[in-house]
Amino acid sequence: MVHIVLGSDLAPERAADPALAHLLSQGRGSLAFLLGNAACRLRLLGGGIHWDRVLLAFDGEQAVGFAAFKHGRRGPFGLHWRPFLREFGVLSGAVRFVGFCLSELREWRYPFLLYGLRVDKAARNHGVGSALVQACCAHAASLGFAHIELEVPLDNPRARRLYLHNGFALRRKRWVPFPPVRGMWRVLP
What we know:
The chain is an alpha+beta fold. The protein has one domain: Gcn5-related N-acetyltransferase (GNAT) (Aminopeptidase, 3-Layer(aba) Sandwich), CATH 3.40.630. Helix 5 crosses helix 6. The longest helix has 16 residues. Strand 4, helix 7 and strand 5 form a beta-alpha-beta unit.
């Protein structure tokens, strides 16, 4: 049986587990052209996680997925330039950091954004994704938000089906082709 925990409610020694930071930092794979491979993303993002913006799914003691969200102009990752400069050098690091900031800041227009969801392959098709989506919706409602929004990549029909199955509706197509995503939203009770 899966249980969902807000990251900030974890015991301090549990939140310090590098495997959790690794799991969460893998959720930005679509920005690999800016953030590099999986190990690089962990070095760039793993030390600046805002655990109060993450719901974690556990099967026993094993973390099997997460849902990250943004509200109040704050998401699951802190925007820190130093790791980018250490990783890529001054010029390339600065350019990549600015690109990452622009990708993060464009999402500020959403009152509450389901920023990312990831479930380990072995745990898929067992209701973990739906449990995370429902927990995220419940969390947003408990904070007083009237609706929740997300952006789903156009090349991910599986994710789109998950969100449709959990009460989200497609938004009108955007006139801007980049990033290649489709907006979805759900009114909260």
